TrEMBL record:
InterPro entries reported in the protein's UniProt record: MMPL_dom, Mycobact_MmpL
Bias (Basic residues): 901-916
Subcellular localization, as worded in the UniProt entry: Cell membrane
Source organism per UniProt: Levilactobacillus hammesii DSM 16381
Protein name per its UniProtKB record: RND superfamily drug exporter
Sequence intervals crossing the membrane: 12-30, 180-200, 207-229, 241-262, 283-304, 316-343, 363-384, 733-751, 758-783, 795-816, 837-854, 860-878
Region spans: Disordered: 901-927
Membrane topology: Multi-pass membrane protein
GO CC entries: plasma membrane
């Protein structure tokens, strides 16, 4: 039994069983990768970020809109303006959609028919495109399912229809990436098979390499996907691709080292198991160092907060699994197959010496300064070109998607920023349905609209993106001026009537006079009502006016009101007296007993009425003069800045139109509202962040010192998401580069035991990578016209470049460390020896990334070009720079002491010569 176990262990069967169990468990527990990409592929923003806070607000919005997002149904007539028949068809389509709203999860539909005040934002200026805004529940189903259903529902004969929103476009981007992920995986593995077949002219060796890649990849992918699915670990839409990219490149390189050494040993007659053990012993340290470097470098990315960068930390686990598989799984097959591994090639191919690195190293040793100057002359201009621009828009790489086309239609007919608006939420502990708060919101709306880069702003007071004239003091002053003109005329009539009444007080006409005065009293009551409204409006306008004379004008208005009150009081007294007089006269004829008393009362009443009417006449004359002055003042006020202020009376706030606006723009408690800001340009890395920062500053400063000074401001929308990603990415990317490259350099220093030489090599790699990046940007701009990379390109290119640096520089570092001679003695033979495998490593690196081209994605094409160009430049420049800096680091320090001794000897000679001259001069003087 022990002998059998020993034999199984000798043949590494236990290792094979272990990997079979691991890969079986990985396959069984592997979740649906497409689903994970759809739901977890986009960057996960922090809970403290503005977009996440805005989402939480929308989830508790109330008014039956909890947990909804806005979708634009776009109806476009490509031949011109929408005809009446087409508009009727759109209305019919919307009516049908309304009937099935519950089925589609549509909580609210906004059209220019049911919300006329929003018409400017829903119908393009050229009348060719109409938008119907839908509030769709997140609980209805996936974004992809909802989009497909709504697209079929809104289809209208004769019109191009689209269903679009930033959420739909992001989902379309994830769908596009998941659609080519499988193709990239298959093509990458196929290219790996072909590459290994070409290198070893074998059929079996590529299959073993394929199995190693497949087992390592499935194990790592299952672990990464389960972490995202069950523990909400960071996951990127490119996770399956970059895991495959790193694992396949590293497995190809380690398998190439393994198979090459194994063939040399088996061809020399060594047994397959013994040869395998010796290869594991010889290469184990090298593979361990490379695995350790890559695992620590990429595993450190898990320390970052930004989810996309943290997702790349999974590569650390992938490289660890790959390294273990390289020294445990591959030996299982090599030990069993032996020389059969290289079937059908029976004889070892003759390998010619590779002279390129030899000649480059020899030139660097011969003329180090010239070699350095040539390299700097070729690389520095490319590196310093500074054409680095990143794009944070997911839609640039999506071909022929209806949501993207709909967004382009909106940009063409409404403005470039229409498809990606910014939403500003304002939350306060006060109700927002009164004049004071609404006035400040309107001022903020106008202030934001005036900012550079802003095309339009909609709010509760301006739902159509433009001020509503009847809500402003200027329009109200116009009505008041008309009323004042009528009041002045009425005052003239009252004045004449009073003049007539004061001279025509007769018994026969007392009843008629009572009626006339009753009429006058009604007129003065009307004047009182108009004047009260006038006083309220003027006080609201004057409180916001900075014009001189505000206080004196307010006093004149108050004086006018007091005079009007006095006139009204006098007229009411006169009416009461005349009524009493008329009653008294009527009782004279029937009651002779009280005649004398009534006549006395009559005389006193006549005198009282006469005095009262005279007083009223004077006050009416004074009031008419005051009204003329007020009319002139209001005419000037109407053209001032104060007249441009919003003033909503309680009647206007209670009106149906404004209540509809409150419903659309505020939550159920009317304590949270939002403003929609449409930018002139689509989101881009150059201007969006600056514009958003400016909007935040303007909003805070505008509300400072007002009744809304304590309000909480929250920004959301695709530009805000892009800006948040850009801010986090630009903050973390330099730290990522410093951390990973710093760890790699540190390990190279430890392995080579030379800080100076490892530093020279690593700087050469960095310069090569920068040159490859800039050249790729130039080539992509020439091929596609796109001068910007997707923001994930640097991260994705980071993987093969780091593998390239670690593999080649580790080999160079170990060769230098194991050298027993001096640095000058090692440079030419050591670098030449490492260069013998350069063409194979270069071929493997290039072949390993060619599979990315199957995606027909600009992002992955850029990664491919960056990797290939960097690998070529690095393999041409490294021997030159390593030999040149290596020689100079020895020669220059050695020259300094020699120069110092030469100067010292020269000084001694000069002093001796001076002393001799002095002595000879003294001797001459003595003689």
């Amino acid at each position: 039994m022990q002998e059998r176990i020993r034999k199984l262990h000798h043949n590494r069967i236990f290792a094979l069983v272990f990997w079979l169990i691991v890969v079986f468990a990985a396959i069984v527990t592997l979740p649906n990768v497409k689903t994970i990409i759809q739901y977890d592929g986009q960057p996960q923003l922090a809970n403290t970020s503005q977009p996440v806070k805005a989402t939480q607000l929308k989830n508790n919005w109330g008014r039956n809109l909890n947990g909804t997002y806005t979708v634009n149904a776009v109806f476009n007539n490509p031949d011109g303006a929408l005809t009446n028949k087409q508009l009727a068809s759109v209305n019919k389509t919307v009516s049908e959609l309304q009937k099935r709203a519950n089925y589609y999860g549509v909580q609210k539909i906004t059209t220019m028919t049911n919300t006329p005040t929003s018409k400017p934002q829903l119908l393009s200026k050229d009348k060719s495109t109409e938008i119907v805004q839908l509030e769709v529940s997140h609980n209805q189903g996936t974004v992809r399912q909802m989009t497909s259903q709504l697209k079929s529902q809104i289809s209208t004969v004769g019109l191009n229809t689209y269903v679009t929103s930033p959420e739909i476009i992001s989902d379309a981007a994830n769908e596009h990436i998941s659609s080519f992920t499988l193709m990239v995986i298959l093509m990458t593995m196929l290219v790996a098979l072909i590459a290994m077949g070409i290198l070893f002219a074998s059929i079996i060796a590529p299959i073993i390499t394929f199995l190693a890649i497949l087992i390592s990849y499935i194990t790592t992918l299952s672990l990464a996907t389960n972490l995202a699915y069950h523990w909400n670990f960071a996951y990127s839409e490119y996770t399956p691709i970059f895991l495959l990219l790193g694992i396949s490149l590293f497995t190809l390189l380690t398998s190439f080292w393994f198979f090459r050494e194994l063939r040399n040993l088996t061809d020399d007659g060594l047994d397959s198991q013994a040869a395998t053990s010796k290869v594991v012993s010889d290469l184990g340290y090298r593979i361990l160092i490379s695995t350790l470097s890559l695992t620590i470098a990429f595993g450190s990315l898990m320390l970052f907060d930004f989810s996309t960068i943290r997702a790349f930390g999974l590569l650390g686990i992938g490289f660890a699994i790959t390294g273990i598989a390289s020294v445990t799984l591959v030996p299982v097959f090599t030990g069993m197959l032996g020389t059969s591994l290289f079937w059908p090639k029976k004889t070892r191919p003759r390998l010619k010496d590779h002279k390129l690195w030899f000649h480059l190293t020899k030139f660097g040793l011969w003329q180090p300064w010239i070699a350095i100057a040539v390299v700097l002359y070729l690389i520095v201009p490319v590196v310093m070109a500074d054409r680095t621009h990143l794009n944070y828009d997911n839609a640039t790489d999506i071909p022929n998607n209806q949501a993207v086309q709909g967004a382009r239609v909106l940009s063409a007919h409404f403005g470039q920023g229409k498809a990606t608006p910014i939403t500003l939420y304002i939350s306060t502990n006060q109700r927002l349905d009164n004049q004071n708060q609404l006035y400040q919101l309107d001022n903020l709306t106008k202030k934001l609209r005036a900012q550079p880069g802003v095309a339009a702003v909609t709010s509760v007071t301006q739902p159509g993106g433009q001020p509503i004239t009847q809500y402003y003091v200027s329009n109200q002053l116009s009505s008041l001026n008309e009323n004042i003109t009528g009041i002045v005329g009425q005052l003239g009539t009252v004045r004449n009537d009073l003049q007539s009444d004061s001279t025509n007080l007769k018994q026969s006409t007392l009843k008629a006079e009572v009626k006339r005065l009753n009429k006058l009293t009604n007129q003065t009551n009307a004047l009182m009502s108009d004047s009260s409204t006038l006083q309220t409006s003027l006080q609201a306008a004057l409180s916001r006016s900075t014009a001189a004379g505000t206080t004196s004008t307010s006093k004149r208005i108050t004086k006018y009101i007091n005079q009007l009150n006095a006139v009204n009081s006098e007229l009411n007294t006169a009416v009461n007296d005349l009524t009493t007089l008329s009653t008294s006269v009527g009782t004279v004829s029937s009651d002779a007993t009280t005649a004398h008393s009534n006549l006395s009362n009559y005389a006193e009443s006549i005198k009282a009425v006469s005095d009262s009417l005279k007083t009223s006449k004077k006050q009416v004359a004074s009031m008419q003069t005051s009204m003329n002055k007020i009319y002139l003042y209001l005419s000037g006020l109407q053209s001032s800045e104060a007249a441009k202020s919003l003033y909503l009376s309680p009647t206007q706030i209670a009106s149906g139109d404004f209540q509809q606006s409150l419903t659309n723009y505020t939550d159920a408690k009317v304590k949270t509202t939002y403003l929609t800001v449409t930018l002139k340009q689509a989101p881009n890395a150059k201007t969006t962040t600056q514009t958003l920062t400016q909007l935040k500053q303007v909003a805070k400063s505008q509300l400072r010192g007002t009744v809304l000074s304590d309000a909480t401001l929250t920004f959301s929308g695709q530009p805000v998401v892009a800006s948040t990603i850009q801010t986090q990415y630009q903050h973390d990317l330099p730290r990522v580069l410093i951390l990973v490259f710093g760890i790699t350099l540190l390990l190279l220093v430890l392995f080579s035991r030379s800080l100076l030489q490892a530093g020279y090599w690593f700087l050469t790699f960095l310069a090569s990578a920068a040159a490859g990046y800039q050249l790729t940007l130039l080539i992509m701009g020439w091929l596609t016209g796109n001068t910007e990379f997707n923001w994930q390109v640097p991260l994705l290119a980071f993987i093969p470049l780091t593998v390239l640096a670690v593999v080649e520089l580790t080999q160079l570092a170990l060769s230098y460390r194991l050298n027993d001679g001096s640095l000058l003695d090692w440079l030419l033979p050591g670098i030449n020896e490492v260069g013998q495998t350069m063409r194979h490593s270069l071929f493997i690196i290039i072949a390993g990334v060619l599979g990315l081209l199957a995606a027909e994605s600009q992002t992955l094409t850029a990664v491919t070009l960056i990797t290939i160009l960097t690998a070529i430049i690095f393999n041409l420049v490294l021997p030159l720079m390593a030999s040149s800096f290596g020689k100079l680091s020895v020669v220059l320090p050695a020259q300094k002491p020699m120069q110092f001794h030469r100067r010292k000897r020269a000084n001694r000679k000069s002093k001796t010569k001076v002393a001799k001259t002095t002595r000879s001069a003294k001797d001459t003087d003595k003689k």
